[in-house]
Each structure stands twice: as structure tokens, then as C-alpha cells.
Amino acid sequence: MAHDGPDDILERIEQRALESAAEEVLEPEFDLREAIGGADGREPIPDLTLGGYIAQHDRPPAFTGVDGQPYTIGLDTEETGDARKPYVGFLVFLRWAATGAGIMGHVESGDLSTGETEDEALQALLDLSLFEVKAELDAAIERRRADLADMEE
User: Fold this and answer.
1) pLDDT of 57-99, one tens digit each?
2) Contact 127, 115 (CB under 8 A)
3) Distances from the Cα of 40 to the Cαs of 27, 33, 130, in angstroms?
4) Are 112 and 90 in contact, with CB atoms under 8 Å apart?
5) 96-100 CB contacts, 8 Å cutoff, 24+ apart
6) Contact (CB, 8 A) for 112 and 104
7) Which residues have CB under 8 Å from 117's CB, separation 6+?
8) Rounded to whole angstroms, how far apart are CA atoms 96 and 71?
């Protein structure tokens, strides 16, 4: 170290400062599935799932879509006619006016769940994390954009 120049010393000090700051600032890794399920004896975070959010807040969650518009979520099912999977579940995303005064349109997810009963298909939707719901919303908006672009061609 005696032969280190001033630049080398400053570089080592800067590196140690960055490492120290990182240790103080960085949060431990967050496991979404553990948080939802309450692993390690911790209480689960109830409103990380669609069903938990609705139960805790007594309303569906609202999101800003990738298009910048406000949306709320509805759940729906359909019969398939397939005896192995008689019901499918999907999400309906209602697009609201910016003022909240009315519904301006909607987009739908693809089929996200199946069930032998309508309740089974709905429960699988309620078990989705809010992160999964938001990803489905943004994917539905992008599909609508692509469909509109195809129609203009």
C-alpha cells in the first residue's frame, strides 16, 4: 500500500463507500409467493392477491394501464363445452373516463383459469397476485393496440 498513488487510494475509498452504502440501502430479497402464503411463520400479506385485495378493501383494485388510462377489474367465466374443463375464467378490465364519470370501454384477458365448476374457475382468478393481474391488463391493452393497427392497414 505504501506504493499506491493518490488515485489508487481514492479509488479504494470510493469502492468501500459504495459497498457500505449498498449494504445499508439494499433490502433483502422479497419472495412474492412467501409473502402471499405467509411462509416462515409470518402472517401472509392479504391484499397481494386479487381475492385478498377485494376482501380487505371491499372493492376491486384499480390500475393505470400501459396506455395511461384508469381501469378496474371484473371477473367472468364461460362454459367451454369440454367435459374435462367445463369452465374457464378470465378478467374484464373496465376503462374509466379520466374523471371517473363513466366507463369508456374494456379489454379482456385470455382464459386464465379452468375449473370443474364456475366457483373453481373464479377462485383460481381470485388467487392471482396483483402483479399478475397488472401484467394481464397491460398484455390485453397491447393486444387491442395491435388489433387496431391491423385494422388500419
Assistant:
1) 999 999 999 999 999 999 999 999 998 899 999 999 999 998 8
2) no
3) 18, 12, 22
4) yes
5) 96/69, 96/70, 96/71, 96/72, 98/69, 98/70, 100/70
6) no
7) 86, 87
8) 6
User: Residue 105 carries which side chain, given as an amino acid letter?
Assistant: G
C-alpha angle 128/84/108, rounded to 5°? 40
What are the CA-CA distances from residue 78 to residues 14, 87, 112, 151 (Å)? 61, 6, 12, 27
Element (H, E) at 122: helix 118-126
The predicted model scores a pTM of 0.70
139 class by beta-carbon count within 10 Å (0-12 exposed, 13-18 middle, 19+ buried): middle
- Closest to 65 (Cα-Cα) out of 149, 137, 143, 117: 137
Tell me how far apart the alpha carbons of residues 40 and 109 are, in angstroms, rounded to a whole number: 33
Residue with cell 367472468: 76
- Grid coordinates representing 137 are 391488463
125-143 residue pLDDT tens: 999 999 999 999 999 999 9
H or E stretch at 106: strand 103-108
60, burial (CB in 10 Å: exposed 0-12, middle 13-18, buried 19+): middle
